[in-house]
Specification:
This protein has 280 residues and is of the alpha+beta class. It has one domain: Jelly Rolls (Sandwich). It has helices at residues 5-14, 25-41, 54-65, 101-104, 106-112, 115-123, 152-155; strands spanning 16-19, 71-75, 94-99, 129-137, 147-150, 163-169, 180-182, 193-197, 203-207, 219-221, 228-232, 237-239, 250-257. It binds fe (ii) ion. Fe (ii) ion (FE2) is lined by residues 150, 152, 165, 237.
């Protein structure tokens, strides 16, 4: 799966590529089935309560901030009653699973290290690629949360910037179930901010360019199941809430250049026992 010269020009110009039928239907279904199994095995006791008090919120932060080497489960914001109990079963309440699925789970490992993806990454010019982060995103029916406009480089920064986000549609993504929106060419405007660790162990935004994104210029990418959307690490993108009765499952993989510097101030840090790996 090598990109054509035209596709590479398009990626450099627009900051994204839409590759239809990149993944066959059976492979999409296999990831869906595996994600379902993982959720079924997940015991939400103790995590559900995290959202209810200040003290427990701090636990949530650690649960998130230490998830770079783990498989962890994050709830939809609107999944809870005011008393902290779930409004519906956990299968319909999880926002995403992250962030080391690609290393720790055999099914996701096999999918993520497919030859096709390795070749695509090489075509993008990412040298010595490392698979940094994976997420299974549910965008649940009715309560699927909005993801506000951002650049992935804000959260996953490398110096120089060598980051690609691969967004695999495991179901049809439409305007009504919360498809991706992108700002064509917006990657050429530079990085707006970084999300950096503080000395106190929390996170803060470090603003580089206070000029907001021109959000009215974002365009929706409605895609069929099996489509891969490649996103440049500096491309502004978002997705709206899903208030439809249909889910919008997607799998994302973020790949960085191994020769770039990966700062200790990034939120995602791997434990020494589980260093980042490439495609081998
Ligand atoms: Fe993103």
């Amino acid at each position: 799966m090598k990109l054509s010269a035209d596709q590479i020009v398009q990626y450099q110009r627009d900051g994204f590529l839409v590759l239809e039928d990149f993944v066959d239907g059976a492979s999409c279904d296999r990831l869906r089935a595996r994600a379902e199994e993982l959720v079924q095995e997940f015991d939400p006791q103790g995590v559900v309560s995290i959202f209810s008090t200040h003290e427990q919120n701090r636990t949530t932060d650690a649960y998130f901030l230490e998830s770079g080497s783990e498989i962890r489960f994050f709830f939809e914001e609107h999944a809870f009653h005011p008393d902290g109990s779930l409004k519906q079963n956990k299968e319909q309440s999880i926002n995403k699973i992250g962030h080391a699925l690609h290393d720790l789970d055999p099914v996701f490992n096999q999918f993520s290290r497919a030859r096709k993806i390795r070749e695509l990454t090489a075509s993008l010019g990412i040298e010595d690629p490392l698979l940094l982060q994976s997420m299974y995103i549910f965008k649940q029916p009715n309560i699927g949360g909005e993801v506000t406009c951002h650049q992935d480089g804000t959260f996953l920064y490398t110096e120089p910037v060598q980051i690609a986000g691969l967004w695999f549609a495991l179901e049809k993504a439409t305007l009504t179930n919360g498809c991706l929106w992108v700002l064509p060419g917006g990657h050429r405007l530079g990085l707006k901010s970084r999300w950096v660790r503080t000395d106190e162990g929390g996170m803060r935004f470090e603003v580089i360019d206070p000029e907001p994104f021109s959000e009215e210029q974002l365009v929706p990418l409605e895609v069929m199941k099996g489509t891969l959307i490649v996103l440049h690490g500096l491309l502004p993108h978002k997705s709206l809430a899903n208030r439809s009765p249909k889910s919008r499952h997607a799998y994302t993989l973020h790949i960085i250049g191994g020769n770039s510097v990966y700062p200790a101030s990034n939120w995602l840090q791997r434990l020494p026992a589980t260093p980042l790996r490439g495609f081998d």
